[in-house]
Each structure stands twice: as C-alpha cells, then as structure tokens.
Design a protein that fits this description.
heterotrimer; A alpha+beta; B alpha+beta; C alpha+beta; A: alpha+beta; OB fold (Dihydrolipoamide Acetyltransferase, E2P); Ribosomal Protein S8, Chain: A, domain 1; 5-stranded mixed barrel; 4-stranded antiparallel β-sheet; 5 helices; about 20% helix; about 30% strand; B: alpha+beta; Ribosomal Protein S5, domain 2
Chain lengths: ~250, ~260, ~230
C-alpha cells in the first residue's frame, strides 16, 4: 500500500519524504531510497499521476543549449568576445556567429561589441565541461542599447514571461516599456518615463516573489490596474521590437 | 564597464529621480537595533534599506602611549566580510576596508566624541582602549554611512566591563557608560555631474564622479572629511555638498 | 563529583532555545541565520561560480569551500583578532566534510560553491550552529542535496552526560565536548570531534542524546526554509 506524504505544489526541502511505497516513480530532483521517494533539492512538488518531481525555486543559472539569454561582454578575444552569462560559466561568441558582415582578420572588434555592452544571444552549444558558445544570429538577438538591467531568479523566468508571453505582454500594455527576458534571469527594461520603468521593475519583482503562489495573473493584473498611469495608449514599440519566442517551460 | 548605468543614472537625476524612485536627497529607511552581541561591551545593528552591518565594542586595558600618557586610546576596524557581497574576498583587509575604517575612526577621534582623558586609569601605567569592530552582513550600497552610524551606536551602547585594577572580568558588566562628549554624524555625499546625492545603492556606487565624507556635529560644525572618487569638484560644489550634509545629517541623528 | 544543575536551569538532555531564518542576506544566492541559546551564526552561499585560483579547479565536479569566522567582538573574553587562524582553518575544513556527503556538485565542473559562516555572538557550539546555518543556506541556494545536515554538541560534565554545552560547561575542568553532525534522515555521522576523556559507554550515550536532538533541530530548519517562500501578499 503506497502512501503520498505531500500535496501538489507544496514546498519541500532536501531529504524530505514525498512518498512511501513502490507505486510512485521518482523524476526530476527526487530520488528513491529503499521504499521512499525523497527530495534532492529545495523545490515545489509536482504530482503527475504516479510520477513525482520538483520544480526548483532557487539557484543560479546553468547554461543550456537553446536558451536565449542576456549577457554582458567582458573580454575581447582574438576572434570573438567573452560574454558573462550570469552563471559560473562564461560564453564565447565567435565572429562568424556575431554578424553576417565580413570581419577582416585583425579588425577592431570593439566596433561591433565593446566591453560592458549588454547583448541578447542564443546558446548554441554547451560541452560536458560547460564551455558555452552563443550566437547573435536569430530573430530578436542583438545588442541592447540604453534601458536598465534587472536580475531575477532564473527559475521564475517562465512565470515572468507567462503562457505564450502573456504576462510580459500585460506588463508592456500597462507600462508602455520595452521588456526582454533572458532565460538566465537577466531582464532588460526600457521606457521613456522613469516612473513607468520603475513600475515595470516592481511588477517583475512581485512576480519573482510570488511566482509559486496561486492566482498570480489576477494579482499582477490588479496590481498594475491600481498603479496604472495615463499614457497615449498607442504602443509605439510594438512594431520595432519583435519578441523572441520562448519555449514553454514548466 | 559601467557606461550604460552611468548614463542611465545621469538621465534619471536630470528628471529628478533615481533607479529606485527616490529623489537625490532621500535616504532609504534607516534603523538601529542595540545589544545584538552579548559578548561585546556594546553593540548595534544598522540597516539602511537592505544594507546591514553589525558593530561591536571591546574594551581592553593597556599601557598608554608615551606621548599621551594620561589618555586612553581608540581603534576602529572594518571587516568587509565575504559573506556580505559577491565582490568581497576572504583574506587580509582591502584598501576599501582600510579607508572605511580610517574615515570612521577620524570622525570619532577628531570630534573628541569619547573623552580619552577619562579612559586613563593610572597615568603612564594603565588606560582603557576602546576597540570598535564593524562587520558587514549585506552590502546593498552606502557602507560608509552604515558603518559610521553602527560604530557610533555601538559606542553609545557600551558599558565598562568589571575591572579590579589588575584584571578585566568580561563576564561582569557594569552599568557605567563610556565618557561621551558629542555625537559626530558621518555622512557621505556623492556627486554625479551637477547633482548631489545621498545614500547610494550598489548600482549607483558604480558610477559616481566624486564623493565627500564629512562628520557633522550637533551645532552644524564639521569634524573630519575625506574626498573620494576619480573626479575633482569645484569650491562652489563643496559649499553645496556641505549644505546638504548638514541638513541630511539630521536623518541619521534622529535614528540614533 | 556530581553535576547538580546547569547554570541556565535546563535538563541535561535539553537543547537551548533555537531560532532560524532563511534568506537573511539578499546579496547571497542562499543564506540563513541560526541561533541556539546565545550562539548565533550567519551563513551565506555564493555560487556555483568561477573558481579562483584556477589551479584549484576540479574538471569533474564543483568544489565546496567553507570559511568559518568569529566576528572580533563575538568571543566570551578578549577581542578575537580578525583574520584566519589555525582554529578557524581547521573548523572550516571539518565543516566542509560535514556538508560534503549531502551535496551533489557533479553538474558544476570547474566551479566553486563558497559558504561563509560568521558568528556575531558565541556561547560554545559555534561549529555546530555554523553547520546548521550552512545546511539551510545551501538548500536556499538551490544546491542539489539529498538531505539536510544537523549538528549539536553533546558531552559530559562531572558525572552527567549532557546535550548542547554552554561555554561554562565546555570550559569546565574535566568537561568533555563532542560536536556531532548528522544527516537528518539516516542519522549517519558527518562530523565528530571530541575534547576530553570519556568511556565508550558514555560516548555512545552522548551520541544517542545528539541523535534525538537532531530531529528537533531539523524541524526548525525545515520550518524556516518553508517560511522563506510563504510570502504574504503585498
């Protein structure tokens, strides 16, 4: 007779017993020890039939192939740039992945990207030693000019984006700011009105803090509704800023 | 490396605001908690926004220095703990830690906050030494003001340990406070272009032109100063900075 | 000689009051505060991050590094001179070993996870309080780990086997101090040190006291970790 010890969406700590008995199966961030299934990190329980897994709530970013991230140029290399990925591992962007323009040997690479520049790039390869290659070839990938950078918990990124980008679109609608969210927890925000920019930052921080609680969308909606500021209503950035498409993540 | 953020801060200041929505002369909430370390003769925790530091006072009896044979002595040390920021490293004190300690020391020493003569037990033989250690717990900007305020609060909170003329009994706490004469509020002002700003966050600390730390006394007179930053400022700038300093020192004084 | 009464009136097998909080240092990836009696520890976790100096990198897995330190005003007597010393280096090392059996850093080759433990006030049992705080901070930092680690000291004063020694007991003539860390589920021992002389029979009794206390400590750690994420709506 198997027994489940936790509820769906419950927060569990490392070593906590999730179920006793052989009827349940351990999946992400859980492990079996004899007849028990235990948590192998801090996280939120997800019960899918007989499968038990955890969604992490905290921790630094770990580069993953296919992720779109926002990074900062930290070094000019012989044939490319080193980019900080907000993780333990920096990435390299090779000249050929940076631009379709021809760059002559020995050219001054700072003309394209200089130290300190923020860039939105896509991870094309991660080796077993976590060496990371990124590219700027792809829709929406580019250098980010102006605006401000906010760091958020990388595990809350899917909630900040929302289903098919619904959350981020709602914030954009209310604040008229341009927002780009990197899977690595780096968010770029740019608006013409500092008060709107600040409202965007605060909304994102609110989502970050409350992402694991039920009724998030409604709460964010009423938060923005209470604080909405009058603006022209026409979203001037809609056309010039194609959003990067994100894969839906659980 | 920080050109973008510098540009952003300047443009916000010209619109009368900052990254977190404060005006140039706004402090984040300031709070002080006393008696936070029971083994210290005095202690205090200071929070300015998310910045948090703990200061503790230890008292020792030693032979006075020959040139001040009838006086006790004072020492201030700052530990920029690696616990409090990814930018700090374990190991010997950095230049920043030493500057913070010396600037805090100077405000206390030069204002004659503690009457060092009254710390003398036997001239030329024995005198109290007041050692103030300030440790950072979380660095979210403006360590200068947080550290100086915590040092002040810990000294204000301190009492002498038991002393029989020969040995200190650290377990016996007397109710005798340290001989204090005045409270110098040390405040650091930051210059960004033509703007003068108080209480910077860690982002704002990346991008200032110059700064001035000044200790302000009850009557508005000044006890010590330290200029920092890579740019110079004009005499008119100095005058403006000092006006802001005297006015804003009240924010920290009322927290004590 | 018989030990009649503890100076704080506790039973011989009783812990001092415990309090814990998680997420106390916003700059850190994970952090915690743990207080037992008048001993108080902060722990902050940074990383996984790039390992410097580079020659310490392990290409197979991430490295766990602990740094134990007493704040200069935290000791019961004179000021503790700042900076590392032989004692703090040894404690840092045994703390690392106490935590290593539960953490899995195989995903983080060449990187380091730094754990900084700082004590603002002490009344014995500092390494145990540090381990309790560090274990919570590692969990808060999202480090993969299969269990929590709980630590407490047990020992002997005169004729009594006692739990959770205070400074006056730790420093008593003939006092025996045994800091112990256990994995919360299996009760396997990951830190064991002893100062003093004791029979095997008494030692096993002391370890048994610690084993019972571990469940109580673990409950406090769990509650603090869960409370961290139960934010009120604002």
């Amino acid at each position: 007779m198997s027994e489940i010890k936790v509820k769906d969406k419950e927060i569990v700590v490392p070593g906590e017993t999730l179920a006793i008995g052989m009827d349940y199966l351990p999946s992400h961030w859980t492990y079996r020890e004899k007849d028990k299934i235990l948590a192998s990190r801090l996280g939120l329980v997800v019960i899918e039939g007989k499968v038990l897994k955890l969604v992490p709530l905290s921790g630094v970013y770990l580069p993953k192939r296919g992720d779109t991230i926002i990074g900062q140029v930290t070094e000019i290399l012989l044939s490319g740039w080193r980019i900080d990925t907000n993780s333990a591992y920096s990435a390299v962007m090779n000249m050929k992945d940076a631009t379709s323009e021809f760059i002559a040997r020995g050219a001054d690479l700072t003309k394209y990207f200089d130290i300190g520049d923020w860039v939105m790039v896509k991870i094309i390869n991660v080796t077993s030693q976590n060496l990371v290659d990124v590219t700027m070839k792809g829709p929406g990938l580019r250098k980010l000019k102006g605006g401000r950078i906010v760091h958020v918990n990388t595990h809350k990124v899917p909630r900040i984006i929302g289903k098919q980008g619904s959350m981020v679109s709602m914030i954009k609608q209310y604040t008229n700011c341009r927002i780009l969210v990197g899977q690595n927890g780096v968010v770029w925000i740019s608006g013409d009105d500092p008060a709107q920019e600040l409202l965007t930052v605060n909304t994102i921080k609110k989502i970050e803090n409350e992402a694991h609680l039920a009724g998030l969308t409604d709460r964010v909606h009423s938060y923005l509704e209470k604080r909405k500021m009058p603006h022209s209503g026409r979203n001037i950035h809609e056309t010039d800023m194609p959003d990067v498409q994100y894969s839906e993540q659980e | 490396m920080h050109e973008e953020i510098k540009h952003n801060i300047h443009s916000l200041l010209s619109k009368g605001t900052r990254l977190d929505g404060r005006s140039a002369s706004d402090f984040r909430p300031v709070s002080i908690e006393y008696d936070v370390a029971h083994n210290a003769e005095g202690s205090a925790r200071v929070r300015i926004g998310e910045t948090e530091v703990i200061a503790g006072v230890k008292m020792e009896v030693m032979k006075p220095y020959p040139d001040t044979a009838d006086q006790g002595s004072l020492m201030v040390n700052v530990e920029l703990l690696a616990l409090s920021s990814p930018d700090f490293e374990a190991g010997p004190p950095s230049g920043d830690a030493i500057e913070l300690a010396r600037v805090t020391d100077r405000a206390i020493r030069e204002s004659k906050m503690i009457d060092l003569h009254k710390l003398c037990v036997t001239p030329g033989e024995k005198a109290w030494m007041v050692v103030i250690d300030v440790c950072t717990v979380n660095d979210a900007g403006n360590l200068f003001d947080a550290i100086a305020l915590a040092a002040l609060a810990a000294v204000k909170n301190a009492t002498f340990p038991g002393f029989d003329g020969e040995k200190i009994d650290y377990h016996e706490k007397t109710d005798k406070p340290l001989p204090l004469q005045r409270l110098p509020i040390s405040l650091t002002l930051y210059k960004y272009g033509k703007h003068v700003l108080v209480d910077p966050t860690q982002d704002e600390e990346l991008a200032y032109d110059s700064r001035l730390t000044v200790a302000v006394l009850e009557d508005g007179s000044l006890a010590s100063m330290q200029k920092g930053g890579d740019e110079a400022f004009s005499i008119d700038d100095l005058s403006e900075i000092l006006d802001v300093a005297v006015e804003k020192s009240q924010v920290l004084r009322t927290a004590l | 000689m018989t030990y009649e009464k503890r100076s704080d009136g506790r039973r011989f097998d009783e812990l001092r009051p415990i309090a814990a909080k998680v997420g106390v240092i916003p700059r850190a990836v994970g952090s915690a505060w743990f207080k037992i009696g008048k001993t108080e520890a902060y722990a902050a976790v940074y990383g996984p991050r790039e390992m410097y100096p580079k020659f310490l990198q392990d290409p197979l897995k991430g490295c766990l590094r602990c740094h134990y330190n007493m704040m200069p005003f935290s000791g019961s007597g004179e000021r503790v001179r700042p900076g590392s010393n032989r004692r703090s280096k040894e404690i840092s090392l045994v703390m690392e070993r106490a935590l290593r059996p539960v953490v899995d850093l195989s995903q983080f080759p060449n990187a380091v996870v730094d754990v900084f433990v700082e004590l603002p006030q002490t009344d014995a049992g500092t390494r145990c309080a540090g381990i309790c705080a560090a274990s919570m901070a590692l969990a808060d930092a999202g480090i993969p780990m299969r269990d929590l680690v709980c630590a407490v000291s047990a020992g002997k004063v005169e004729d009594k086997i006692i739990l959770d020694l205070m400074y006056d007991e730790d420093s008593a003539e003939e006092g025996v101090d045994i800091p112990i860390a256990m994995l919360a589920n299996s009760k396997e021992i990951s830190l064991l040190q002893m100062d003093g002389m004791i029979t095997k029979k008494d030692l096993m009794k002391a370890i048994d006291l610690a084993k019972k206390a571990v469940d109580e400590i673990c409950d406090v750690q769990k509650t603090a970790l869960k409370e961290r994420f139960n934010v009120a709506e604002h």
